[in-house]
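Entry:
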Amino acid sequence: MDIKLRDYFAGQCLAGMLANPEFVKLVVRERKQLIKDGLSVEKHCEANQLWHAETCYQFADAMLKEREKDMPM
C-alpha cells in the first residue's frame, strides 16, 4: 500500500483527535443519548466516521498547502 504524505498527515490528525479525552467523552455521551432515544447508533457512527475522515483530510490539505510555501520553486 502506498501511503502518501496527505494520508500520513490525516492519520496524525485523527490520532490527535482521538487522543483528546474531552472529544472521546463527547462521542460517548452522544452514543448514550442515541441509545436512550432509541435511535440508530450505527447510522450515527457512520456519519461520525465520515465527518472525522473529511475533517482530517481538510487539516492534511491545509498542512500541505502551508508546507508548499516553504518549498523552493
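The CA atoms of residues 2 and 8 lie 11 Å apart.
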